[in-house]
Amino acid sequence: MVAVLEATGIRLSELAGIRYDPGDPLGGDVDLWHREITVHGKGGKTRIVKISHDAARSLDRYLRVRARHAQAYRPQLWLGVSNRGPMTAGGIYQVIVRRGRQCGVEVFPHRFRHHFSHTWLDRGGAEGDLMELNGWTSLQMLRRYGASARNARARRSYDRVMQDSC
What we know:
Mean pLDDT: 91
Number of strands: 3
Radius of gyration: 18 Å
Structural class: mainly alpha
Number of helices: 8
Strand content: 5-15%
């Protein structure tokens, strides 16, 4: 879950809504071959997000363990421990917060969305592409998420932009 959140910045509800069907690769939302996940966002909007090689590897490992789960027949990707059923958004939230505490870090699922957006912009990703990946239709959302680290990005860009001006 953490690897997918880090690689995509998807919403918690989108993460909880991912479906998986091992018998029919086209029936689920996970395509490890192309490193893509179909997510179902706000307002029933569907989009495809890419995942990193590391996230695909982590997800592949999870799917191998999931195959031995008593409820592996369920279409929801994320299944609870001790043969419990599919995890809800609330359950996933609790897992992420608990894992963060175990690592000594205060973390919440939504922070991954901010981190993904900041990293995308910091590495020179196009704003329009970020809007598409995050499922935004409004520039207001781009400004809101980009503002959290705008000053730090601007200072890092200074040397690159002003390199030979003196």
